[in-house]
Specification:
Distance between the termini: 52 Å
Helix content: 25-40%
Radius of gyration: 21 Å
Number of helices: 12
Low-confidence stretches: none
Mean pLDDT: 96
Number of domains: 2
CATH class of the largest domain: Alpha Beta
CATH architecture of the largest domain: 3-Layer(bba) Sandwich
Number of strands: 20
Structural class: alpha+beta
Bound molecules: flavin-adenine dinucleotide
Strand content: 15-25%
Largest sheet: 7 strands, mixed
CATH topology of the largest domain: FAD/NAD(P)-binding domain
C-alpha cells in the first residue's frame, strides 16, 4: 500500500501547563515529581493506565543504584530513594547483593511500584493523564510549545512552557524534527525481551541450581532440537514473593520498535518464546517441576530505539574512562551490557568502584528549543547507552530534566543555569 492522504484536523486546546512530561516511566515519573517540587505546574501524560513504564510492565529489579565490583558505592539519590522507601514501607523490595553483572539490585513487586508512583506524583501535585498518546508537537519556529494527544474523545492540544521527552523512543524530538540516531532502523538496536514469572516454584531448589548448569541445560535442550531457545544464558531470580521466580530469557533481535508491524511481530514471537522457555524450565530444571508461567510482561521490553543527537554525545570511551563533566547531573557505574542478536551477552566494565558523569548536555537535543529528554532516549552512542540505560540512571536523569524544565525561564532549556540545577538536585538528595 502506498500514497498519502492529506488530513485537515483541529484539536481543542484542552490543557495548559508549565512543564509537560511525555511518558510516565522511570524517567518521566521522576521528572514530573522533581519539576512539581520546584513549583512548576506539571502535566504528565502516559499511554497506559499506570506509571513506572518498563519498570512496571516488564521488569522487577532496579540496577544502577550501586557500582558493581569490589567496592559497592551508592551513586543515585533523591526521588529514586523515595521510590525505594515507598516499596520498603510495604515490604515489597529486597536488595540482591552482587559484585558482578550489573552489581547489587533492588528487586520489587511491579504492581506496588505503580502504587508508589501514584503516591509520589500525587503528593507532589502532578496532574496525571492516563490512556492518552502523544502524537504531535505544537511548534513555533524551532520552539516546541506543546503537544497534541490522542484520547478516546479525539485529538486534544496541550500548551506547555517546556516539554520533557521521557517517551523512551524520543517521540517528541522525532515529531519536532530534531536529530536522532535510530538504532531500530539501522539494524543495530539491542534485542527485545518478553519477561515472565514462574509461580509454584520450589525457590530454594531453583536457587541452588548453578547458573552455569542452567545454561548448559539450555544449550543441550536447544541443540537436541526439543526446544526453540534462541538465548542460551538467560537468567531467573527471586522476587519478594515465596514460590515465584522472575525471568529474563527470551530474545527477539533485529526489530525497529517504532515500526508497528515489526513491533507486533516481536510481541507474538516474544510471547511464543516465553511459553517455550517456561516449558523448558518445568521439564528440565530443578525447582520448576510444578511451576507455571504467570505474569507475562504487559508488553515486550524494548532496550533501545531512537537516541537523540544532543549537545553532547556520550561515548564508550567516556564510560570506560570514568569521565567527569562540569555539567554533570547524574552518575553511573553500570557496565556496558549488550544484548546483541547472538546467544550470549557482551559485558565491559567501568574501572572498579568508579563512575562516570551524565552531562546535562546529553539531555538537550540539538536544533530544537523547549524540549529536554530523559531516560533511554538520551544522547549517547550504542555502547554508552548499553551502560547508562539502567532504571536508577533513568530516574536520576528524569529528576535532573524535571528541575531544569521547572527552572527554564520561557522554556529556554539551553539557557538554564546548570550550576543551579546541580544545587537543587543535591538539595533533593541526588548524588553528583
Ligand atoms: C528486557 C529488558 C530488561 C532490562 N533489565 C533491566 C534491569 O534489570 N534493571 C534496570 O535497571 N534496567 C533494565 N533495563 C533497562 C531499563 O528498563 C530501561 O532503560 C528503562 O526502564 C527506561 O526508562 P524510561 O523511563 O526511559 O522509559 P520507559 O520505562 O520505557 O518509559 C517510557 C514511558 O513512556 C510511555 N510512552 C511512550 N510513548 C508514548 C507516547 N507516544 N504517548 C504517551 N506515553 C508514551 C510508555 O508507555 C512508558 O510508560 C531493561 C530493559 C529491558 C527492555
Amino acid at each position: 500500500m502506498s500514497g498519502r492522504i492529506e488530513l485537515a484536523w483541529s484539536a481543542p486546546l484542552a490543557y495548559a501547563c508549565d512543564v509537560l512530561v511525555v511518558g510516565g516511566g522511570s524517567a518521566g515519573a521522576s521528572a514530573a515529581v522533581a519539576a512539581a517540587e520546584q513549583g512548576a505546574d506539571v502535566l504528565l501524560i502516559e499511554r497506559y493506565g499506570f506509571l513506572g513504564g518498563t519498570g512496571a510492565m516488564v521488569l522487577d529489579t532496579f540496577y544502577g543504584f550501586f557500582t558493581p565490583g569490589s567496592v559497592e558505592r551508592k551513586v543515585v539519590g533523591g526521588v529514586p530513594d523515595r521510590v525505594i522507601a515507598g516499596l520498603e514501607r510495604r515490604g515489597m523490595v529486597l536488595k540482591r547483593p552482587n559484585t558482578y553483572g550489573a552489581g547489587a539490585g533492588y528487586t520489587y513487586d511491579p504492581d506496588t511500584l505503580k502504587l508508589v508512583w501514584d503516591e509520589l506524583t500525587g503528593e507532589a501535585g502532578v496532574r496525571v493523564l492516563h490512556h492518552v498518546t502523544f502524537v504531535d508537537v505544537l511548534k513555533e519556529g524551532d520552539r516546541v510549545t506543546g503537544a497534541v494527544i490522542a484520547t478516546k474523545q479525539g485529538l486534544r492540544a496541550i500548551r506547555a512552557r517546556a516539554v520533557v521527552d521521557a517517551s523512551g523512543d524520543a517521540d517528541v524530538v522525532a515529531r519536532a524534527g530534531g536529530p536522532f540516531e535510530d538504532a531500530g532502523a539501522d539494524g543495530t538496536a539491542q534485542s527485545l525481551t518478553t519477561t515472565f514469572r514462574m509461580i509454584d516454584v520450589d525457590v530454594d531448589a531453583a536457587r541452588a541450581f548453578p547458573k552455569a548448569e542452567l545454561w548448559a541445560r539450555m544449550t543441550e535442550a536447544a541443540e537436541g532440537g526439543d526446544y526453540d531457545l534462541p538465548r542460551r544464558e538467560g537468567s531467573a531470580h527471586i522476587t519478594p514473593f515465596p514460590h515465584v521466580m522472575h525471568t529474563n530469557m527470551t530474545r527477539v533481535a533485529g526489530v525497529d520498535a517504532t515500526d508497528p508491524e515489526q513491533l507486533s511481530r516481536a510481541e507474538r514471537e516474544g510471547r511464543r518464546q516465553a511459553f517455550e522457555y517456561g516449558r523448558f524450565l518445568r521439564d528440565r530444571v530443578p525447582g520448576y517441576e510444578r511451576g507455571h508461567l504467570s505474569g507475562l510482561a504487559t508488553q515486550i521490553g524494548v532496550r533501545e530505539s531512537r537516541r537523540v543527537r544532543g549537545e553532547y554525545w556520550l561515548t564508550r570511551d567516556d564510560v570506560l574512562a570514568a569521565r567527569r563533566f562540569p555539567d554533570a547531573v547524574a552518575r553511573c557505574g553500570a557496565p556496558i551490557e549488550e544484548h546483541h542478536a547472538g546467544g550470549d551477552t557482551r559485558w565491559e566494565y567501568v574501572p572498579d568502584g568508579e563512575t562516570y558523569d551524565i552531562p546535562y548536555r546529553c539531555l538537550l537535543p540539538r536544533e530544537i528549543e523547549g524540549v529536554v529528554v530523559a531516560g533511554r532516549c538520551l544522547s549517547a552512542s550504542h555502547d554508552a547507552h548499553a551502560s547508562v540505560r539502567s532504571m536508577a540512571q533513568c530516574m536520576a536523569m528524569g529528576q535532573a530534566a524535571g528541575v531544569a524544565a521547572a527552572l527554564a525561564t520561557g522554556g529556554d532549556l539551553r539557557g538554564v543555569d546548570v550550576g543551579m540545577v546541580r544545587e537543587r538536585l543535591v538539595a533533593m538528595g541526588a548524588l553528583l
